[in-house]
Structures are given as structure tokens and as C-alpha cells.
Amino acid sequence: MKIIIKKISLVTVLIGSVLTLGCSEPSNEVAKVGEKVVTAQELANYFEFKRLDAKNTALVESAKKQYLNNLALVQAIESQTEYSDEKLAFELFEIKKDLLLNRYFNQYLEQVVTETDMRNYYAQNQEQYQSQQAKVSHILLRVNPADDETTRQAKYSKAVEAYSKINTGSDFSVVAQSLSEDRVSAKKGGQLGWIKAGAIGATFSDTVFNQLKAGQVSEPILTDFGYHVILLEQEPKTVKRSFESVQGNIKRSLRKAAKDAELARLQSTVSITL
């Protein structure tokens, strides 16, 4: 509870400090909290900050009570012996810093990173948004690093059995359903769908993208997952991602680069002497 009250008071102090800036003209006193006079102008500034509808009298009255109660809470805490202006000043600095940075960069980045910039980046970096993909099915006999040679040989023999059945006329999907230990793809006749080059492993990728022709089945090959028998259903083709599907990633990348550059520029405008 003590921590929660402290956080509320810090925010209230900050708001109070901001709202009272520039209010040098005398205004009507509407309340007094301890020794502090609260003016109509101060409340008006607070209501504007909270974006309250002035016509909603019930809401305005509730906000007024909340503001006065918060001022009272601040005074009560400040009167405690453990209260430290110096420590609070550092916390307020952090709040101010975060507010300034967030507001500045929200506006700045909206101006410097436009949809035109994103589309230009997309057009100039096509290689990032296209890949070679092939449609494949496989039969997997799993091999674990801890398996002994006898177990590995047994798995290899089973993979050879699957390959032989397919070569003698058995349907690949039927063999996959009965022998494959990749139960997810086995339920679909071994289908993995369209995969990118390098997605499963170097040996698997080389077999699919460099050695097989459409409709061909590979002899058993070994990867980190085990022994595979692979069917290349459709030959590799270049698949390009649309601008809309990558727009969010491009925006984040451009905004980060712009923010880093602007941070460096801002910091260079003020010297630091040690």
C-alpha cells in the first residue's frame, strides 16, 4: 500500500507542477488545501489536461474532488519525516524524460517514416521478401543422439523398407501413414506443404532443391531429426511476400533506424564536460 500511494503522489506532483506553470495572472480562489490556495485557473488547466467535457457537471465535480484529494495526499506525504525532496526530484526527472521522449518521437517518427518510405524500402530490398520454396512430403524415422548403433541401424532399415515399398508401387501417402514417426505429417500422407530452402536442414534442403525432380522420391537421408524419405511434389519456385504482409516489419525497422539517428543528433547538440 505504501508503494502505491507513493506512485500516485509522484504523478500528482508532476501534474501539479506542469499545470501551474505560466499561471501568473491572479485568479479566483476556489479551494484551499492546507496552506495552498487552489485557483479557478488551476482547476481549468487540470480539466483541460484531463480532456473533460465542461458541460458534464457531474464529471467535472468528481474530477475537482479527486484533484483536491490528491493535493492533500501530497501534502500529507511531504510532511512525513522520511520524505525526501532530493530523491523525488530524481524520480520526477525520469518521468519527465520518458514523457518528453515518447511525445517527441511519436510526432517525429510519424513525419519521417511515411508509407512512401516503406514502399521504397520494399522495392529496393526485394531479396529480403522472396524465397525459394518447394512442396514436399516425407517419411521420418526418428533418431536421437543417445541412440546406439543397433537402434540407428534398425531405423535406417525401416527407412529403406519405406523407400522400397514406394519404388515397387506402393502409394507414398499410404506408406507415410503406416511407417512415418512424424505423426503430424503422417496423418496427411506425409505432406509438409511448401517449405523454404534451409528450413529443415542443409542435407534435406540440398536434396529437395538441388537433387530431386518433381515426382521423384529420395533414398533415405540423415538429418538431425532422423532418416527421411522425401517426395518432391512440386519443383521449387520463387515466392514473393506482398508489401502488405511485411509492412509492419518494415515500419518498425525504419522507425528504429530513424530514432537511433535522431537520438544521436540530439545528443550531439549538447556538450557534456567531465
From TrEMBL:
Domain of life where this protein originates:
Bacteria
Pfam families, per this entry?
Rotamase_3
Where is each PpiC domain found? 131-234
Primary enzyme class:
isomerase
One GO molecular-function entry: peptidyl-prolyl cis-trans isomerase activity
What Gene3D superfamilies is this protein classified in?
A: 3.10.50.40
Q: Which UniProt keywords apply?
A: Isomerase, Rotamase
Under the heading SUPFAM superfamilies, the entry gives: FKBP-like, Triger factor/SurA peptide-binding domain-like
Q: What is its EC number?
A: 5.2.1.8
Reactions accelerated catalytically: [protein]-peptidylproline (omega=180) = [protein]-peptidylproline (omega=0)
What the record says about family reads: Belongs to the PpiC/parvulin rotamase family.
Write down what this protein is called: peptidylprolyl isomerase
Give the source species: Pseudoalteromonas tunicata D2
